[in-house]
Amino acid sequence: MVAKYLTAGLAQPVHALLHSDPWAIESLNRECTAVKRPESERRADAVLVASTLSEKLRRYRFSVQSHEFRAPASTRLRGEPRGNVRDVWEDTRLEAMQRLSEHGSVKFADLASADRQSTLFDVLRKLDKPPKYPIASTSDAVIDTVNAPFCALDYLRDKCLEAGTTTEVTASALESFLTRCEFAGICWQETRPGHHLLGADYSPPTMFSIIWDEVTRLSKEIAVATIIGSPLEKAIKRDIGHLNARYAKDSRLVSFCDKIKSQQIRILEAIEPDDLLTS
Q1: CA angle in degrees (0–180, nearest 5) for 251-269-168
Q2: pTM, full prediction
């Protein structure tokens, strides 16, 4: 719990949970802040992410097989290798994308290819949404490619339930994915020479970028629940209430509570796992 770190005189307990080395808590610089990056760098290009993801998945599988850390990431305990919010977030996202990449005859690169978007969204529009679980693979590469994102969402749904998040979290991710795909499909159909629905400089999101966003969001929820122990807002409120009740006479109490609240804001504002790294 956050509170037990405070009683040891450590002013930034949640900061330590975010750090890639959870044992570095005692040597943290109290002035450290989240890495600031241009907005254009905060959401990586879908094609670039997709082109490097296969290699990242390969390295992740090798690390798991070498017993460098436990998998799935949501089973890790705080303090063990990669047992912190940032790493559980990143690794859970990789595990979900691994499920996506393994589905039937999925064409992974097609999900991020601009040339394939109209076809993919048109096929999605004609299929049952969401597909019935468990999702069966087919001999049709296009159908498997369209269904593959649902495999990632199904994986994360199970992990969310295991971590104790609410059912609304996973339901909202699925609804968001379908709604955004519906809109993107219309945009891609209308994106042709001389006709741009949203302007000549606007490129509609790809199916890959949409599923990547939803997987990233769900993986963050799982990481917070796994390491902090409950949804973030409840965990912060619980521990601040505990501190106020038990350590009301401690002169450092206000400062400690303020630092916990600032870390809560930092987690909430994070878009990518690396937003939780320190400079």
Answers
A1: 105
A2: 0.80
